[in-house]
Amino acid sequence: MVPLGIKYIPHALERMKERGISRELVEEALQSPDDTTEGYLGRKVAQKRINGKLIRVIYEEIENEVVVITAYVTSKVKKYGGE
A single Pfam family, by name (predicted)? Predict the structure, then answer.
């Protein structure tokens, strides 16, 4: 499989900064997710458990790139099936 490039829309970068989420953490979740599910509007959601919480990265695959829409960390692990 050819590795995909990763792009961030401005909204994603703003939200990551507000939430204290690093690009490294987002890229780790994208490259080795615990789970990937379908999101709204054909988007995908990569999830990874970290320190008892769940990072969720919402993204689209466009041509040979992953375009990150937003990312957040939640403690609602059960709600999103991250057990």
Answer: DUF4258
